[in-house]
Design brief:
With 261 residues, this protein is an alpha/beta fold. The chain has a single domain, classed as Purple Acid Phosphatase, chain A, domain 2 (4-Layer Sandwich), CATH 3.60.21. Helices cover 21% and strands 35% of the residues. The chain has 6 helices and 12 strands. The strands form 2 sheets. A 6-stranded mixed beta sheet has the order 1-6-7-8-10-9, covered by helices on one side. A 6-stranded mixed beta sheet has the order 5-4-3-2-11-12. β6 and β7 form a beta hairpin. The longest helix is centred in the first third of the chain and has 13 residues. The chain is globular. It starts with a strand and ends with a strand. The relative contact order is 0.19. The structure holds fe (ii) ion (FE2). Fe (ii) ion binds next to loops.
């Protein structure tokens, strides 16, 4: 569990937040062009947060490995680290940090090197760990700060084949934390839901929003050919390739969050 507080400046209109997760760079199903477009569709007020599974990192000792899946590359871990760091390098000054996914965790567990930590070292970005709480403090001219509490986790459990299964699973996790924005990866779905809780502001009844975002993937579900993808063999439905854009806009007393997913 990693806790962080990060201050960002805005011009009165707020910021955009994009997530970097489940890219699986190095796998032939990775849609690198779509990921590059997602990164490039940004401006000076756009920030990024990483939730893991950046690189596929399935190596010959992994039961999921099959010959040819990484071309003729020998140094798979180092090759994928270099390649993915190159992709992110133009955006490092807008990175809130990069967390870990289960693909990076498997390499650490089996081989004693942490690809996510190494990626952060290469880029000079903050290591956000496997999950955490982040206090994102929006400031205008160094004052008028508004805090947005973000709960993030790479994600857990198998991906659901129904449209509501993963939302239900993660909504249960949301109940454990006091946060405004909840970000999850791992299940390769792009979904969002607004959870509204009743509360008081002074003596006035108000609706308080929490936003749950399942942050998509840039790994394609199917290929065009006889050799099946893992998702095809497992009977998973088609997934959208892409990630969310989260608009965080300061208001008089707190902030407004809108999610495009
Ligand atoms: Fe993934």
């Amino acid at each position: 569990m990693q806790t962080s507080k990060i201050d960002v400046e805005h011009d009165g209109k707020g910021i955009k937040l994009k997530t970097i997760n489940d890219i699986h760079w190095g796998d032939e199903q990775c849609d690198e062009k779509a990921f590059k477009r997602y990164l490039a569709d940004s401006d000076e007020h756009t920030y990024f947060i990483g939730l893991g599974d950046y690189m596929d990192m399935i190596i010959p000792s992994d039961p999921r490995y099959f010959p040819g899946m990484t071309g003729s590359v020998v140094d798979i871990v180092d090759h994928q680290l270099r390649g993915f760091a190159d992709l992110l390098s133009p955006y490092t000054d807008k990175m809130l940090g990069l967390g870990w996914g289960n693909h990076e965790w498997e390499i650490l567990k089996r081989h004693g090197t942490s690809p996510a930590s190494r990626l952060n070292e290469m880029l000079g970005t903050r290591d956000l760990g496997y999950s955490g709480l982040l206090n994102l403090c929006l400031k205008q001219g160094g004052k008028n700060s508004r805090s947005v509490i973000i709960r993030y986790h790479h994600g857990f459990g198998g991906s659901s084949r129904t449209s509501g299964g993963d939302l239900t699973k993660f909504e249960k996790e949301c109940a454990n934390w006091d946060a405004d924005l909840f970000l999850y990866g791992h299940v390769h779905k792009l979904q969002t839901v607004r959870v509204v809780r009743g509360g008081l502001c002074g003596a006035t009844f108000v609706a308080k929003d929490q936003h749950l975002v399942i942050c998509g993937t840039f790994k394609k579900t199917f290929n065009d050919g006889p050799c099946p993808t893992w998702s095809e063999k497992m009977g998973f439905p088609m997934r959208t390739v892409g990630g969310p854009t989260i608009y965080i806009e300061p208001r008089r007393h707190r902030h407004e969050i809108r999610v495009l997913a």
